[in-house]
Amino acid sequence: VIHGDLSARNILLTECLTAKVSDFGLSRKMYSYTHYTKNGDDPLPWRWLALESLKNLQFSSASDAWSFGIFLWEIFTLCEQPYPGVPSLTNNFIINLEEGLRPTFPQFATSDMYVMMFVGTHKHVVSLVGCCTAKLRDGILFIVLEYCVNGSLERHMKLNRPNFQNLVQKGKILGNKKPVVLEPEDENPNYMKAIPNSNVCMQKRQFNNLQLINWSIEVAKGMEFLSSKRVIHGDLSARNVLLTEHIEAKISDFGLSRKMYSYTHYTKDGEEPLPWRWLALECLKNLQFSTASDVWSFGILLFEICTLGEQPYPGVSSLTNNFIINLEEGLRPAFPLFATSDIYNIMSSCWDENPSRRPTFSRLVLTIEEARAACNKFPKSSNPRVSIALVTLGSNFHHG
């Protein structure tokens, strides 16, 4: 059956607000003809019709699919009229359709909301609780997300640097040696130095290297889930990982952070801000995003974790052609001083210039879990949430 006039006006709602398709074309005679233009004796709902229907009066399941797309547009604009600037069907309108004219993107049908509705729930992905459209006509859409009480991973690591217990030196585990903590110098809060173990380790948010590895595994598992759903995040970073009450990591935003977060992290390409410090080479050169480019960003996230939130490429102030050329020639973030060699090898594998040679997220989960198992020499602690601080060695980037 070909409907031929699929639109919001031909969808009826039951007592329970369940939608039912009606009319099968009968609405052409029942509904106001202001929606149509006449072609012979047959009025046509031209704003809803596919190109082939307008040109040759060809109706099919494919033309109904076109109309269904217009119907979806009506839903997410609260039944605004398609093509509001076009008063009537003309040859110019048909020509414009042939050249790519389509209804404008619904202002409130954000791709992020669609993605989160599609993805569903996972232990390490922030869930969409719901949305409120009560003020949609005023340009306001409220999205309700799962609450993560400890905020972003980036902020948490920076605030808790003084409570960070280092158990790694020159890429190797300290073993039975005394761990050290990091303390900011008063004159330069960005400078970290190792000091003998002290009472600062007894503060509330005490953590060590093992916690950093745990966060890395949790994010990798979340990204493994998203990639299985064919979802590309596009902005994976420590600022877009949130922490629950139990300090477990959850991936957030799915690109929403591009609009919510400070633009100091981005450069604009046309209308789209880009988090260039986290992007893969092919993203910067050709705006090609994929699961493999998310893997590159995950490697940068590992660097952030292993430096307690330091900025990647701190000596580079803006995106330039020289920066891209340097990436092509092997520029990568440097070995963090307190990362294990295994963890740095994993993050380096994420930065392969060839996307097809980068590991999958499933593989990353396995390799990071293996790296955690190799850390059984970490000193035992009575605090199950203790984890480690990692700082950078000299310059935060090098040529590989």
From TrEMBL:
InterPro entries: Kinase-like_dom_sf, Prot_kinase_dom, RTK, Ser-Thr/Tyr_kinase_cat_dom, Tyr_kinase_AS. GO terms for cellular component: plasma membrane; receptor complex. One of its GO terms (molecular function) is ATP binding. Residues 13-379 form the Protein kinase domain. The keyword ATP-binding applies. One of its GO terms (biological process) is cell surface receptor protein tyrosine kinase signaling pathway. Keywords: ATP-binding, Kinase, Nucleotide-binding, Receptor, Transferase, Tyrosine-protein kinase. It holds the Pfam family Pkinase. This is Fibroblast growth factor receptor. It comes from Orchesella cincta (Springtail).
